[in-house]
Amino acid sequence: MKKIFFIYTFIFIFCNHYLLAQDTKFTFPDTTKNNSKSILFQKQYWGFSFNSSWTSIGNLFGGKQVEPFFFKPSVGGGFAYKKYINDATNIGFGISLNYQQRGAGIYYPDDNDMSNIDSTTRWRFRFHTFELPINLLLRSKKCVGKSESVRWSAEIGLIPSYTHLARRVYISAEDGFHTLINETNNFQQFNVLGNLSAGIDIDAGEKTMFQVHFQTQLGLNNAYRNDFSQFQGRHILFGVKISALFY
């Protein structure tokens, strides 16, 4: 009798334990899921920008030019700070501190010297400027496509610009001894330009966002003064700006 009692007791304990084990569910954390907010939806950013552009001095609104110009390559960049009203808002404000090259290539008549076959495009106006772009920031409400890693963005604003140095430069490609003529006094040292850029923000991971924008800028005041004051021309720029931003 005792043996039967022990056998039933053992069976009861075993079955009860087995059924409880079947009903018990263990929840394991999903280590692959990232609950942090994407950098594309942060409130503020800081970082650095670089642009590769083409610049000239144009008379889009009429007036006489000093000389015939063509677009020349210029570079620039600096420090940027951007802040949106809140995390869910698509409007914000940005300010930058930049160094920017400006200027134009100058067409010259061919001097007919066979040893100087490229005389028509060797002259340049080169400007070295320090600038403080102030922009209204816009970004799309949603990401592009299903990747959740790309977002549209744009900037529109004004650029106060101070010309530290303006030179007329002759490019002597043969020996590297370029002709440098200081003409800072013939150009406005303080200029204001309108700025417009648009492109994409890319989530690069590790709290980093790359921003790629096509940009264009147009001077709002005459670039000339003193000996050139009877002429009309405005700074023009278009190119590509790449920024690395963090939060």
Shape: elongated
Low-confidence stretches: 2-6, 28-35
Mean pLDDT over the residues: 86
Distance between the termini: 77 Å
Give the helix/strand class: mainly beta
* Rg, Cα atoms, Å: 32 Å
Q: Count the helices. How many? A: 1
Instruction: Report the biggest beta sheet as strand number plus sense, adding barrel if it closes.
Output: 11 strands, antiparallel
Number of strands: 11
User: What order do the helices and strands follow?
Assistant: HEEEEEEEEEEE
What is the beta-strand fraction?
A: over 45%
Helix content: under 10%
List the main descriptive attributes of the protein structure presented here.
247 residues, mainly beta, eleven-stranded antiparallel sheet
Explain what the structure shows.
By secondary structure, this protein is mainly beta. Helix content is 9%, strand content 51%. The protein has one helix and eleven strands; from the N terminus they run αβββββββββββ. The longest helix has 22 residues. It is elongated and about 65 Å long. 23% of the residues are buried. The N terminus is likely disordered.
Sequence-ordered SSE layout with sheet pairings:
Elements: H1 2-23, E1 44-58, E2 69-70, E3 72-84, E4 91-106, E5 123-131, E6 134-139, E7 150-170, E8 179-182, E9 190-205, E10 208-219, E11 234-246
Antiparallel strand pairs: 1-3, 1-11, 2-4, 3-4, 4-5, 4-6, 5-7, 6-7, 7-8, 7-9, 9-10, 10-11
